[in-house]
Amino acid sequence: MMAVVQRVSHARVEVNRELISGIDGGLLILLGISAEDSHGESEWLARKIARLRIFSDSEGKMNLSMVDLGLDALVVSQFTLFGDASQGNRPSFIQAARPEKAIPLYEDFCHQLGLCLNKEVKRGIFGADMQISLLNDGPVTLVLDTKAIMKKT
User: Fold this and answer.
1) Catalytic annotation, residues
2) Which residues contact residue 142 at a Cβ distance below 8 angstroms, ignoring those fewer than 6 apart?
3) Is cis: bond before 139, omega within 30 of 0?
4) How far is the C-alpha of 91 from the C-alpha of 35, rounded, in Å?
């Protein structure tokens, strides 16, 4: 799995000009699922993101997590994170999981993150043509790739 994690002041998802979901402060998570991913990676990544200390404490140091502050998360599926543009000009998405596998893992990730945060996780609509608006806070943006990170732990 791969996640682009953005600390936001607010974020919104629209489909056909209709507001689907939104948060006021917290993390916008763009989640890519590869054909090789499993429940274990979903669970691990949810715990990792929930505990990332990327929010400022009273001294202005990034020392607090979403769990510490009770903040919200908005998760949007994004198969294009596994786009491979190394050859030619048209990306290949062969590494991205097919919907039959990706949807259950997307749902599992959202469920696991909700358990970590002890609250509902806001979501986009899997496979929809979504318009996402956000106000980056910081900006603070991290890219987490379970394949690379889990090898190190």
Assistant:
1) 78-80
2) 4, 5, 52, 54
3) yes
4) 16
Token couple for 150: 């889990």
The token duo for 64 is 């607090």
DSSP string, the chain: -EEEEEEEEEEEEEETTEEEEEESSEEEEEEE-BTT--HHHHHHHHHHHHT---EE-TTS-EEE-HHHHT-EEEEEE-GGGG-B-SSSSS-B-TTBPPHHHHHHHHHHHHHHHHHHHTSPPEE--TTS--EEEEEEEEEEEEEEEHHHHHHH-
Phi, psi of 131 (to 5 degrees): -110, 125
Q: Residue 131 in contact with residue 22, Cβ under 8 Å?
A: no
d(CA 84, CA 1): 15
Domains of the chain, earliest start first? 2-148 (3.50.80.10)
Report pLDDT digits (tens) over 4-61: 999 999 999 999 999 999 999 999 999 999 999 999 999 999 999 999 999 999 999 9
Tell me the pTM: 0.94
pLDDT tens digits, residue range 120-150? 999 999 999 999 999 999 999 999 999 877 6
